[in-house]
Amino acid sequence: MSQQIETAKTPSPPAKESEGTHLVREIMSGNAVISVLAVVVALVIGGILIAVTDPRVSAASGYFFADPMATLSAIWSSISEAYGALWRGATYDPTARTWQGQLGIFETLTFATPLIFSGLAVTLAFRAGLFNIGAQGQIILGATFAGAVGFGMHLPPVVHLLVVILAGALGGAIWGGIAGFLKAKTGAHEVIVTIMLNYIAISLVLYLLKNQLKDPNSSNPISPQMDANALFPLLLGPNFRVHAGLILAILAVIGVAWLLNRSTLGFEYRAIGANPKAARTAGMLVSRGYITVMLISGALAGLAGVAQIAGTEKSLDSEIAGSIGFDAITVALLGRSKPWGTFFAALLFGAFKAGGTSMAVNADVSIDIVAVVQSLIVLFIAAPPLIRSIFRIKESRREGVSA
Amino acid sequence: MSVTAKLSPSIAADRVAIRSWRTPIMFGVLAVFAVVVFVLLGPDGHATFRLSQDGDAWQVPNLVVPAKIFGIVVAVGALALAARSYQQMKNEGRISKWVTMTFAVLFVMGLLVWIIGGTNTQNITLVGLFTGAMLITTPLVFGSLSGVLCERSGVVNIAIEGQLLAGAFTASLVSSITHNAFAGLFAAAVAGMFVSFLLAVFSIKYVVNQIIVGVVLNVLISGLTGFLFEKIMKTKVDGVTIFNQPTQLPNLPIPVLSEIPVIGPTLFRQSIIGYFMLVLIVVIWFGLFRTRWGLRIRAVGEHPKAADTVGINVNRTRFLNVIAGGAVAGVGGAYFTLVAVSSFSKDMTGGLGFIALAALIFGRWNPIGAALAALLFGVAGNLQSILSLAGTPIDGQFLAMLPYALTILAVSGFVGKSRAPAADGEPYIKG
Amino acid sequence: MKLELKGITKSFGALVANDHIDLVVESGEIHSLLGENGAGKSTLMNVLYGLYEPTFGEILIDDQPVKFSGPADAMAAGIGMVHQHFMLVPVFTVAENVALGGESTTFGGILNLNDTRAKVREVSARFGFNVDPDALVEDLPVGVQQRVEIIKALVREAKILILDEPTAVLTPQETDELMEIMRQLKANGTSIVFISHKLREVKAISDTITVIRRGKVVGSAEPGTSTTELASLMVGRAVNLTLDKAAATPGDLTFKVSNLTVMSDAGQRLLDDISFSVADGEILAVAGVQGNGQTELTEAVLGLHKHISGSIMLDGNELVGRSVRQVLDAGVGFVPEDRQDDGLVGEFSIAENLVLDLYTKEPYSRWGSMNRAVIGKNAEEKVAEFDVRTQSAQDAADTLSGGNQQKVVLARELSRPLKLFIASQPTRGVDVGSIEFLHKRIVAERDAGTPVIIVSTELDEILELGDRIAVLFAGKLMGIVPGKSSRELLGLMMAGLPANEAQAQLDGNAATMEGERS
Question: What InterPro entries would the database entry show (chain B) (predicted)?
Answer without folding.
Answer: ABC_transp_permease
